[in-house]
């Protein structure tokens, strides 16, 4: 198993289409498809976003471990970090719960 099969398996286990994941990453479906086929290298920001989407560790996404290590739930007091990525520009926003 390689990283391409890992991100494909995570997507399929979640019953997501490539388009749905691409929309979440704010990229084209054709670009996301290239990441799954390892025709393009998956940027770190996307790998982090995928780990957040699937609730697994970054190490699991990039195939450094076979243990999913689900991420702990954040409490209502803590800020949530949301990363938007478009045209290789990352904008990190703090979104606070009311």
**3D shape:** globular
Return residue spans where pLDDT drops below 50 for at least 5 consecutive residues: 77-98
Backbone structural class? alpha+beta
Q: What about the largest sheet?
A: 2 strands, antiparallel
Widest sheet, order of strands? 1-2
Please count the beta strands (DSSP E, at least 2 residues each).
2
**Rounded Rg:** 14 Å
Series of H and E elements:
HHHHHEE
Helix amount: 40-55%
Task: Please render the helix and strand layout as text.
Blueprint: H1 3-13, H2 18-25, H3 29-36, H4 44-54, H5 58-61, E1 80-86, E2 89-95
Helix pairs in contact: 2-3
What does this structure look like?
- The protein is of the alpha+beta class and 98 residues long.
- The protein is 43% helix and 14% strand.
- It contains five helices and two strands, in the order H-H-H-H-H-E-E.
- It has helices at residues 3-13, 18-25, 29-36, 44-54, 58-61; strands spanning 80-86, 89-95.
- The chain has a two-stranded antiparallel ribbon.
- Helix 2 packs across helix 3 (29-36).
- Residues 77-98 have low confidence and may be disordered.
């Amino acid at each position: 198993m390689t990283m391409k099969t890992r991100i494909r398996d995570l997507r399929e286990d979640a019953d997501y289409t490539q388009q749905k994941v691409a929309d979440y990453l704010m990229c084209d479906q054709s670009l996301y498809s290239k990441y799954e086929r390892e025709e393009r290298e998956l940027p770190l920001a996307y790998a982090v976003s995928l780990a957040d989407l699937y609730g697994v560790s970054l190490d699991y996404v990039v195939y450094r471990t076979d243990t999913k290590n689900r991420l702990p739930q954040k409490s209502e007091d803590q800020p949530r970090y949301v990363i938007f990525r478009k045209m290789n520009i990352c904008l990190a926003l703090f979104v606070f719960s009311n």
